[in-house]
Amino acid sequence: MNSVTELKVKPNYIKQYKNKYPLITMDAVTNPDEPMEEGGIVHLVDKTHQFIAKGYYGKQNKGIGWILTLKKDEQIDGAFFKSKILTAVNKRQFFYKDEDTNAFRIFNGEGDGIGGLTIDYFDGFYLINWYSEGIYSFKDQVIDVLDELGGYQAIYEKKRFDTKGKYMDDDDFVKGVRGEFPIIVKENSISYAVYLNDGAMVGVFLDQRDVRKAIRDNYAQGKNVLNTFSYTGAFSVAAALGGADKTTSVDLAKRSKSKTIEQFSVNGIDYEAQNITVIDVFDYFRYAKRKNLKFDLVVLDPPSFARSKKRTFSSAKDYPDLIKDTIAITEKHGVIIASTNNATFGMKKFRTFIDKAFKEMNTTYKIVETFSLPADFQVNRNFPQGDYLKVVVIEKLK
Ligand code: SAH
């Protein structure tokens, strides 16, 4: 049995943990450098050793572990994992029953009571993301629960923590019958090719499901669509299926082109009638301005941080400029769908970016609707940073 390490919480942090804040941070405790084993159980205590909360030690970019319970006597064992995961699965019954969708998240980290762990379901395949070596030490307990649920073809995993310089993992296969990738999953009747054996990104980001549906159902018909930072072109596919006149997908990663062709193809869309361009988005803006190109619908979904040969982009700093560039090539009454997954700022701040951009471009806008994480990305109400996705649908008025 692992021994328990006591972490002493600084006085001004005690209240947040009593109020169920789930993340253990370096600055909240007086002895963060206590020798601890990844996956070891920790008790947060006050200076008189009074118990506050129990969690596990696991170094991540955003903390040194997660709280699992406020009950001192609750054991962190197989039964604990079973109860958390089955509760999460029960909350997703809507998705299991939905015949048009077979790709969704069944466990969302601290939103479902265990930070550092997510589990996605892709039509008979489970994909586990482990965000620290600490949570990875509970692998057997987690797999046991999935085994008990049964009915899967295979389990795959991504170790999203530093494995001592090497990501030499075979192909992320854990157990079951290996898949033949891509598998074609369905999302609101849209097909997406998914690879569970080829790096951290599998081909589609499940958290944008509602936005893709809205694009297809409400914003694409008859429109000339520009999809920037397009990755595999998932938004372009939704737009094309929604009756877009034409889509243009822009991403600087070379493989985005073949990936986008594949996503169009598995939906029976002639990719040759679409425009797929491998180029830096900022160079594309310049090109579009020079050629006087204008779009009716522009999707902006940049990574929080990106470094290319010429520049670094940080959404917390550069988003207003990104919107300004976009405004310049958007038709009057055109729509801009601005998205960010940057957890370091909230919706309020994001809206100030939008406002700033439109003011500086001397034009006006109307916010049509907003999106946040879909229902399967359960959020912990005591951990607002977990509610990272912000999507704003903006109409350019003049
Ligand atoms: N919008 C996509 C996900 C985007 S992931 C979707 O919904 O599926 C971020 C993408 O931005 C990556 O594919 C990356 O290659 C691309 N990217 C990063 N910096 C870029 C830049 N300066 N110009 C073009 N693409 C960029």
Describe the structure.
The protein has eleven helices and 21 strands. With 398 residues, it is of the alpha/beta class. The strands form five sheets. Strands 15-14-13-16-19-21-20 form a seven-stranded mixed β-sheet, sandwiched between helices. A five-stranded mixed β-sheet has the order 1-3-4-5-2. Helix 8 (256-265) links the parallel strand 14 (246-251) and strand 15 (275-278). The radius of gyration is 23 Å and the shape is globular. S-adenosyl-L-homocysteine binds next to helix 7 and helix 9.
Brief description of this entry?
This protein has 398 residues and is an alpha/beta fold. The protein has eleven helices and 21 strands. Helix content is 26%, strand content 30%.
